[in-house]
Fold these 4 entries.
Entry 1:
Amino acid sequence: MTFSVAPMKAPELDRVGGTSEDAGVGALHTERGNLPLERLDVRATITGLVGRVVLTTGFVNSHDTALEATYVFPLPDRAAVIGMKMTAGDRTVEAELQERGAAREAYDEAIAAGRRASIVEEERPDVFTMRVGNIPAGERVTVELSLVGPLVFEDGAATFRFPLVVAPRYVPGTPLPGPSVGDGYADDTDVVPDASRITPPVLLPGFPNPVRLGIGVRIDPAGLELGEVRSSLHTVVAEGDTVTVVPGERVDRDFVLRLEYAGNSSAAVCVPDDDGGTYQLTVLPPDPATPVRPRDVVLLLDRSGSMSGWKMVAARRAAARIVDTLTADDTFAVITFDDRVERPAELGTGLVAATDRHRFRAVEHLAGVQARGGTELFEPLRQGLGLLADASSERDPVLVLVTDGQVGNEDQILRDMAPVINRTRVHAVGIDTAVNAGFLGRLAARGAGRCELVESEDRLDEAMTHIQRRIGAPVITDVVVTPSSSLPKPPSAIYPGVPLVVLGRYTAQAPESFTVRGRTRDGADWQETVAVQHHTEPAVRAQWARAALRDLEDRYASGERAVEAPIVETSLRFGVLCRFTAFVAVDERVVSDGTVHRVVQPVEQPAGWETPRFAAPMPAFPVAMAAPAGFGAPPPAAPAGFPAAPQARLLRAAGPKLVPGGGGAAPVPDDPAELREIAALEVQRLEKDAGRPGWERRELLADLASRLGMLVGSRQGSAYEPLRRLVAELTAAGDVDQLWARALQVLREFAGQTGERRRRFWR
């Protein structure tokens, strides 16, 4: 089969034209050798609406000692990682999927014993960490990952998206005591306890391309009628049935391939196995026969620093288009946010009627929004959902979030938002060349909404047509599938232009058909019956396992700790990687004495992320020199006048840290080490005086409050916040026994005397 790829537009040709060093191919040289990751190769086969991928990472050690390389990388959030193997010379080792703690122990033991080993762990649905250890001097090691996943299909087009870079993420919270659990630039916090594992150092703009990128995609329509094929962000060539990325493309943005298909129909596929089988049901939406109901709409627009450049322009346009979809029967509110929450002054603090005047004021406000600050997403979501909490049953509550989603506290947001979503449909519009698709998809799924991704300005108009249709009411609600499966939770609504896709398991004989029931917009009953086809396609089983694991992991993040055992059991039984398991490969041959030089692979700055404009307040997104600490050149100090968002961190080896405020550098917070020693002494005093009468202990607590108040009063930084709160509690007085116990607890925790180990970063 031969097909053509749509020609590149002028802006895309300008982007890839020329012979600048930025677009060149080759490794990045440092004083101590080249960085370890030398190539990234993606080989994909698309069969209808299923994608199979083999991702090959190639590492080389140019040092004179054994090397351990750490690489933080993204994968498609809905893809199932089903296999891994490590190759060095003529030796290939197949990886084993194990419980994560056991896998880490096996890896660490192998490294200490001088044996080659590699491990791959999931940090987020779309962020993974790979470590390859004991690479001997001069040796090359490759690690292959096998994946399978569905293509998103909407409005007659399928999308194959393969992310290539983990973008910097805003990390809120109070830094945790003790060593970090990873090697990234961000401190672990109480909100994001694994922040150091999802924040790899970033290459400064202008450095030559350190990684050779190869991407090849073979397309088999599998009986569907294939129309135009388009690559959104990379220059590609087509030969026969294969699309290939041209040499010289950088690993700084998602690879996105869109395939126009025609002739789709509803279908149900059952794949039997020893324990029953797996099914995949696809139902096309009916044509809407009635107008949409009036809506209460809250629009949240992210104006944080990571949204600068073309993303801010696209976000403003997207938000304005959403406002334009409203009618006089609707009410709405517009909220813009970074680390502050703002609304158009003329529209007040509640929902207002979508009159021409109000919509004009909203668009006028949006037109003046500029990027700045950090991505504090929790508070605007809380406020937006609060406005919609009392929506009438005659109106549809809708929340639309326009953002790049670059936050690290995804689990916290999902957990705390779940109880207040109620009837509200949450739609997410992700704008970035390396969008946090995993988080935005999970958020939209929680709100029974849709997630639309916009990776370039050229894609905006097409995406907005889809978004406008999604914001409208679904064509079918209260969807029930018979027979049903407990995992994953099936969708509850069918939207215009978007097929309903349901995955599940059956334990006895495969059903002869599936029945889908629901209600149309006018309240009438709707039903469709789909006959079953029997297949042996193994991808269906893996895709179900991945979807089930995501559902269970989201429930775990929401506080259901009892699902941990089913998560591990499902992952190991079906051979699909999750956050509680890991693939580990260990070569039995000893190749070193166990002494290794550790290197964290820097990643590209995402394409389209502007170099900071120091005159305007915006977050200090972390960048590192091409060589990380210990590799020659140290990371640069932050430029003067470049304020950081709250809790944003520069690489630890960098120069002065900056804090928000006005555009100038502020003093770095005091090191709390000396106060920890004082806190330990205060604990000893309290323990010694615990048997004194109540009135004496009350005086001792008042004295303690006075001394602590003097110590923390002039110090800056969130690390001292627990002591400040303790001072306030002691000053307010109350039951002496409770205050005594509270003082002991806070001081012990601050001094690091809790006697408890930090919980595992993946839990």
Note: The first helix runs from residue 10 to 16.
Entry 2:
Amino acid sequence: MTDILASVSRLRVQQDGPSLAEQMTALPVATLVVKPDNSIADANVRAETLLNMARSAIVGSDIARTIRIAEAGARFDIWHSNKPIAAYDIKVHAGRTAEMEVDLMIAPIVDHEGWRVISLHAQSQARKIGHRGSAGGARSAMGAAAILAHEIKNPLSGIRGAAQLLESSHDGRDAALTQLICNEVDRIAALIDRMQDFTTDRTLECHPGNIYPLIDRAAGIAAAGFAKNVRIIKHYDPSLPFANINEDALVQVMINLLKNAAEALEHVAKPRIRVETAFRHGVSVVMGGGKGSAVLPIEIVVVDNGPGVPEHILDHLFNPFITGKRDGQGLGLALVDKLVRDMSGFVQYARDAEAGESTFRILLPMGIAA
């Protein structure tokens, strides 16, 4: 160890530049140097911060005890491999911190058998919920979209009226063509109406309410129409308190999520959708506008056994016009995100590859009677 550190300290980028040891100290990523016996030989400042431990406590400790992988099944002898390893989105208990999700990189040190450099990249909650914390740019885009929608809808009514006049003046000879024009105008108008649903920045009126009749209403609409060939299973927590909601908005959110799930199950042999509720302690988010933090204990999940969201759109799943469906418009989930945020909650997506299930999770504030 002494020889390695001495050789590292002698290396310079330039004659008067920082040594490699000094560069490691300044790295913005938590970095550890590990010996062949799995004890930690060195740690930089960022590692001290991430692990919530002093360097003196880190150095000499066992790497497997200092960074504990949360999933027992994931212990594929990761700490004894002599090959480069990159593990993404794994849950660990790091040092004295609570469980967190990280990207973990292990790189063997050339010409020093058993020695490794380990880096930990912590993932923030903002990434998990889709980078939806900042609304400044979104408001500008919403305003531009609202103006555009208004300007497009104005001539549509004129086009439809002209098509109807043509149909009546030609004794129905061109009825098929004029009906096609009317149908396409109606389709574009409906699309713009859906766009306008999430271009408004008005505040929703929310109050304490029972979510179960609203979920049942949405499930009934789904079972009678777009999900009539899908088994819908409901598991409710009977002790759940009221949530602070807008009733119409929550019904629309549930219809959109159920429709999204039903469409994903189109080619599944035994399609099923599961709707569950639960009370989750200790979940909170920071609100904008100096409102402090909001506790979000009311959980609603919509689970389907479809193939899941394509990997290439995961990071933009809740953005408008992002869809993995050939005929999709990419507005359903964008509206879900908008309405849930308007109710001071948030929505998340997760995929359980082992169970073959996709989950959309809604977290809402609890309703407090005045």
Note: Confidence is low (pLDDT under 50) at residues 72-76, 124-138, 286-293.
Entry 3:
Amino acid sequence: MVRIHIVAPYSAMVSVLSECIPLFPSADITYSVGDLQKGLEIALEKQEDGIDLIISRGGTAKLIKKAVSIPVIDIQLSGYDLTRSLTLASKLNEKTAIVGFQNITAGAAAIIKLLHLPINVYTIHSANEVTSLLLKLKQAGYSHILGDVITINTSHEVGLKGMLLQSGKESVARAIEEAIYLIQTLSRQTIINHVMKSLLIEEHRNIIMFDEDETLLYKHFQDFRDPLEESEWSLLHTSLAINESIKEFYTKEQGRLQVRGMLLDKRYKVYVLSRLHPVLNLKGVTEKTIMKKEPVAMSSVPSANRFRLLQHLFKKNEAVVISGERGTGKTFLTRQLHILENREEPYVEIDADVFLLQDLEHLLTKKPRTIVLNQFSIDEHQELLSACLQKRKANSFRLIMHTSARWDEDQLEAWGLKHVHMPVLADRKEDMGDLATFFLADFHQIYGTRPVGITEEAIAYLENVSYKHHIRTLREVIKNATMDEKEYLLSKEVIKSVVETTEQKQTFPINGTLKEMEKAIIAQVLQEENQNQTQAAKRLGINRATLWRKLKD
């Protein structure tokens, strides 16, 4: 039986593969998800296992072709694939461009012209052109970029929203047919012996080798993805030219890492990388190192006004209290504003209930640009607030507080704080269509769901639904609906079915003992608060120690 392995460069392709593979029962077809280097590593492993042929797509397929000795089939983008993605992108109501090589842009340009879509096309001839072109497009006001995996990854790096051009069922099925035909017409390939390489990988999870000309010979990173810059590798090469063994340490977004280098046979430079414990490991502190720019819904006047006000306060480096009910977008907006103002600088979120004040000095050694105090209460955390305000000027960080309660204006003035209150979803219904479209696009990218649009009737229905946790609940509704929808437009009927079947009803044992009813109420509140004991204790009007004791009883 023919053995084929498909390396999907993005996870949303999995659902398409699950539909296509059963159509070819005469072949043994398996699949994995891995882009570029990860995809190459998968392909090398599968070659060692005796796979007859690899199927992949785009840049990942090109990398694999250069490295393996078995045939590789590239999944092509069909006109149908382009039409589907371009139709979805045209509904986002933000300046959008498609960036890719001639094989993508030629067909895309024809479809865009035919359908009168508001999307511009830019053709590249080398992967080296991608970064500079995307930076120019960002300066020109573009927010969304369509393209292959390399283009999308670069888009995220420069702060743009990337949308992947995905291959549909027809394209994948055509590639499998071609693969089976190719294997049947070619003689069986000679299997290269990888025993030594396998032993090397088993011994070292992360290893890379260069020759005397500093040309890459081999790379296997299990814990990292290209952790060092070219300039850093060059410095390491120079150090090895002087010393036959070296050890260096680096702090990267992927964490703290150690690099050990050795010179073999006076020609080959071999480096072994290992992950070290994080520099920042404090109770109640979360450091966000990789955040993506996302579109912000501002069709409603309340949303637009608050976003502009927060932008103004961020630029002035004011200490700000952002209040609002759970799920109104406090954390999302704060992160997006940080990305807009200080994308490359550290962003830290603190759980004010559990953070230890004596750790503040240690935290500031990380030199965060934005510090967010979550679960903040003026009554319980005055000492923490006072310490943060005192340290702000000397350490140049922005201070943001998230709270579910409004503050007295006299308190705000006394502390020198600015205040922005986030409206509930019911007060910003004009944003419903934008939010639904953003979520729809995300789920299409992540899960490969079918819908690429939403009907006006569905949006009108969504505007009149009650959302317990506002935007967070709306997102869950859209997610579940896209999983159920069989058509390309998300309908009112499917959304209505999801809303009606997922509405939770509080049912407590009224015929039990007081203790049994109390346990049922605590369990319900914990479920609604995603098992966050701090939030549950606040809602129940007890402290965390009391809640913990009741859970233990």
Note: Residues 169-185 form the longest helix (17 residues).
Entry 4:
Amino acid sequence: MTGTSDNSMTKAKLAGLIERDDQWATLETLLTDSLSGSGRVALLTGPVASGKTELLHAFGESCGVNFVKATCSAFERDLPFGVVGQIFHPLDAPAEVGELLDAAARSAEGPSARQLHALCIALMDLTAEAPLVIGIDDVQHADSSSLHWLLYLIRRLGQVKVLLMLSETASPRAAHTALHTELLRHPHCRDVPLAPLSSVCDLFDTPLHADDAMGLSGGNPLLIRSLLDDQRLCKPRDDGGLVIGPSYRRALVSCLHRSDHHVLPVARALAVTGEQATRDSLGRLARVDADTVASALDVMNEAGLLADGWFRDPAARGAVLDDLSAQDRKEMYLGAALLLHDEGAPATEVAPYLVMADHSENPWMVPVFEEAAEHALRDEQIDMALRYLELAHRACVEVHGRAAIAAKLVRVEWRVNPSAAGRRLGTVVPAMRAGQLSDRDVTSLVQPMLWNCQVDEATEALERVRRATTTSNGVRAMELWLACSHPTLARRPQSEPVKTRMVSLTSGPMLKAVTALANVLTYGSSDSSATDAEHVLQAARPSDSGSWGPESAMLALQALVYADRLDVAAQWCDKLLEEARAKNLGVARAFFSCVRAEVSLRRGDLTTAFEHAHNALDFMPAGGWGVALGMPLGILINAATKMGRHEDAASFLEQPVPEAMFQSRYGLHYLYARGHHYLATSRHYAALADFLSCGELMTSWGVDQPGVVPWRTSAAEAWLLHGANRDEAKRLINEQLARLGPDASRTRGVALRLLAATNQPHNRPQLLQDAVVILEEYGDQYELARALADLSKAHQALREHRRAWTVARRAWHVANVCDAAELCEELLPSRGKADAEDAPAEEKPVDPIATLTDAERRVAALAAVGYTNREIASKLYITPSTIEQHLTRVYRKLNVKYRKDLPADLHSYLPSTA
């Protein structure tokens, strides 16, 4: 006799079963009835892996009477009496039973009624004295001969001490079998349904894990057990969440394989097509009818494998896909693509399946890939667009279409890997020469060609475009871009100067940006050009869908830099850099880092300039920069030189650069930086040659603006340091001042500093003080430190020693802030901060407030008493962005983080208007 219910349930739980009290009690009742001589049948039904097998085995092993079990398998359906043999084998049946089974199995027409009757009698004889519990697992897979015998036995159980337990996976199809029909007629048969578990709180460490487990398993005991195994065997997650590991994936796939044969194909079709798949499309892909799809989905929902017709977690979908062989997976993806295409689905839905199928052998796929590539470009998915275009190129057999796709590949790849785009040009140039490309495609290739130093090929393309009868906005933008970046190839229209050319509201960002830059290069800084550049940046994205990519934003930024709008340029650079970082756009990050480095260099923030320039070459190595390498490399050389790191600057100069660079605007930055390195290392004639070369190029190109590179002041400095031809130096300085006019600018501040060196000692202090005021306003810390250093020397020459020392101390602090180590050493030889503290009383460094410029002190004083940035800007008549930059430097110099931390001593510097 069976033990108590509590003991039985303990054993069941040890077998991995919970929430089976009612089912266990039902089985105990049926067992009691059968022991009294009235045979019973228990049909254990439930979804796949719902615990039927565990319950059957656990009850049979603990029931206290003789227990035999048989397991059915779909692979053994063709084995006659396979299940019956499993039952009789452990019962020590007489030899006659074995002979009877052999004879019945050999019968071509199946077992006869006489044979079935004889086998039933043999079983009843064996149970006459000892009760018997028979467990048959997965009875839906039993062979037909065994099913006939079971039906025969069930009809005769009324006076036999037998409990027959049958387990069956619930299925709509199983309800219509002969076995089910017979069981419904049997008065002593009981259904024992097993539903998914409703709670697993006792099995997991935390309620959160238990909730997650229920969400992933739907209460399926096998899946729950697999999740427990994953928590035990896998590395815990950093966030403490539930681990989904290999055990879960294996268990889920096992459930599908154990289900009816139609379930697995539908599950695979669902994994391939996605959540929005219709039952019709699933049926076509799985090659079954709609009713079968509905049945399979119901089975998977009931088993907890799906939730409302979709996988409970991406890991579940991935497990189903991984269960497919590589070839089967490709075939299913291709089948899904064909289905979607036949149904008229958009290219954005069809193309991903073709990519996953790695299939591009049919002409109808070409427009699908091209349209999908356009959408990918608009969504800034550049890598995906490239993949689509590569497959379109592979599928296209028409010559002109294939050439057009190749040209587009060049344009798109230029935005993520310019050097790779250059390698593609080898296949596109022959197509251009053969006349297989449109004028628009040829126009779009000019920039990549010149970027990759293919000047001859670019010249051919320009000749082809210029022979065209119409001039589009794209051609206008290209001509202006050439005038700005490759002036030797430009053909600027003689009528209608650039400055007065109107840009229409429908003009693209490239035409607007290059027009603003051309105006700055030709006519100098103006509010209208800066405004036009900002308009471009307001609509800019780090990855533009046009053929120029992110360069339109870069050109607009350069227009602001050359116009000395450094604060505005810095803000836009930081914004675009963050967007490009979020989207992992390497080329865009390289471009914007380069401009940000130039802004920092012109502000005298040498360390930041050096770091951003390094970043630019990290995001896009030197080979990818092409002719534009002169920009980031020039910044590195210039920043290293100003910091006194001459060996580093020399090593950067050893980097090979393309010869074509020196016929482009980018070469000016390199020549200018190299000249300053030569100047700092006492190679004055070499420096002068580089500066004068800049002047010759800029003059001949019509872009002689100091905002690009102030070659006149640098050449004058070379003459002055050499100690010869001071008259030529003075002429260059005066010429520079005349070209600048009365407006203040960084270059004017530098020119005044150098002009002081050509004047008599008593005239120098005033010129240098004027230079200091200008450089303070424009925030160039390095040039301000130099101007202060020269002012200190001027006071020293006039024997104004105390004033000279005060100015020298301030110059040292400014130079120290911008990491100009060599200049610091020149101002306070062999003395660092600690040494300066030990100086005599009259020579001790001033308090930290003394390190501030006059402009910074005014801003800091107003901020300390509670004025907002906008209010300070209104009082001092400068922009809020300038206020922000001043405060950033104030916080750094005073080593504070917030306004409330500003020292009270600043109050004495409040402007009278406050």
Note: The beta strands are 40-46, 66-71, 132-137, 162-169, 189-193, 306-307, 310-311.
